[in-house]
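pinned: reference chain
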Amino acid sequence: MRLSLLALVALAAPAAAGDRVGAPAASSGKPRIAGRHCPEAGRAVVSVPAGFDGVRVVVAEALPGAAVDVTVMALRGADEVAADRRVRARGAGAWSLRMDATPAGQVLVAVEPSLDVAVGACVERVELLRDQRVVADVRLR
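pinned: its structure tokens
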């Protein structure tokens, strides 16, 4: 019984993956990036002298269903995180998140593919905001 169930799952899996619109090729195992040439993932550390209270993720053109995750961590020390937030951008445009003000200092910005979607969105830039004004502009190449 167990062997026949495994065989049935093995036969059905490639068909199910191929049925989704915009699904990645079965051999790649990773989401595709929509639009322009951009990194699938990246990290940058920037200094924000005044701290920040908002994050804006600007996404270039994107295919329907595209998404990307952006994590922003305000660092208190080499191994300590003062605050962290994640923004999921779904499709093209600007996606914003307001938050409590963070202290001034180093900030780690990480762009990562959303693993539960078939198509990744292309992040053009990540802006850190204080009182709705840009205090840091992060662009990953």
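why pinned: The longest strand covers residues 81-90. Strands lie at 32-33, 42-48, 54-59, 67-75, 81-90, 93-98, 105-113, 119-120, 123-130, 133-138.
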